[in-house]
Specification:
Helix 6 runs parallel beside helix 8. The chain has a single domain, classed as Aldolase class I (TIM Barrel). 44% of the residues lie in helices and 14% in strands.
Length: 304
């Protein structure tokens, strides 16, 4: 084991440089954390335990404090770090969010990295919002993720049919804008919109199977060549595997997973909490081994 524990920024750079990726698993219900950590350990995969603001507003994660407290009980520094996922400036219901307060709470609690989501803002406003969080986080050694473009799926209303959405490139990250955004915001990692979609979160649709998404690898290559920092893929459940592996080879260093582990838990928890937790474990292992092919990644990016 190294004498000093690497930061999540260090590990993300190692993943990026080695053309592998770090999966991030969203925890909308606190009991899900233990089987996810166990699955990461058993597969020797380094991953992030994550919570987004919508998971304490729309689900039952409880908020930054309860997630942090549970993480202290479950963490394994060899295989995990704690990430604050989407804290939007404007949320999925088009409401203004006190994003600086939420992210400051995560920074003060000791989260290893945070994400400010200004994707519903103009380019200039997104840069400024991200710069504000970078100024708060970096002095505390906390890495910052941001988003440019629009990864759809969390909106309260319907989105266009997927084939229409993909063909139009609506919401896709613009490479020229990405160049300016990265240069001016100081972000450590950039979430890009290249064809993936988030899982539905409304009570009426959250049980539905996700669309089988595709990715514009050409757009990804264009962005990566320009920005030269680790890129992030949100909406990682349901993407055709060949696209995922090609994306990892072309700059995606972090992949977010939520629906694939949430739906098995929700399907079984009323019948048997024990079965629900085993289903989370099994789904996490399958995602790591089969869908992402990241088993053993810790041995690459965090060698003992």
């Amino acid at each position: 084991m190294p004498l000093t524990t690497p930061t999540v920024r260090d590990l993300m750079l190692r993943a990026w440089e080695n053309h592998t990726a770090i999966p991030g698993f969203n925890i909308p219900y606190l009991p899900m954390m233990a089987p996810v950590v166990r699955a990461l350990r058993d597969t020797r995969c380094f991953g992030l335990i994550m919570v987004a603001r919508l998971e304490w507003v729309k689900f039952e994660s409880g908020g930054p404090g309860p997630i942090h407290a549970e993480y202290q009980r479950q963490k394994d520094d060899r295989f995990t770090r704690l990430h604050m996922d989407h804290v939007p400036v404007i949320d999925e219901d088009n409401l203004q969010v006190d994003y600086e307060a939420d992210l400051q709470e995560a920074i003060d609690l000791g989260y290893d990295s945070v994400m400010v989501d200004g994707s519903r803002l103009s380019l200039e406003e997104n840069i400024e919002a991200t710069r504000r969080i970078v100024a708060r986080a970096h002095p505390q050694g906390v890495a910052v993720e941001s988003e440019l473009g629009a990864v759809m799926g969390h909106e309260s209303g319907p989105i266009p049919p997927y084939d229409e959405l993909f063909a139009s490139g609506k919401g896709f990250t613009d490479a020229a804008e990405a160049r300016r955004f990265v240069a001016e915001s100081g972000t450590d990692w950039l979430s890009v919109a290249i064809g993936s979609v988030h899982g539905a979160i409304s009570a009426a649709t959250r049980k539905e199977k996700k669309v089988e998404a595709r990715l514009s690898i050409d757009r990804l290559k264009e962005i990566q060549e320009i920005v030269q920092i680790p890129l992030v893929l949100h909406g990682g459940t349901g993407i055709q595997k060949k696209y995922v592996l090609e994306a990892i080879a072309n700059g995606i260093a972090k992949i977010n997973v939520a629906t694939a582990i949430r739906q098995p838990y929700e399907a079984l928890v009323a019948e048997s909490p024990e079965k629900a937790l085993e289903a989370v474990y099994d789904a996490t292992v399958q995602m790591i081994r089969e869908d992402l092919e990241l088993e053993g990644s810790a041995d690459v990016i965090y060698p003992a």
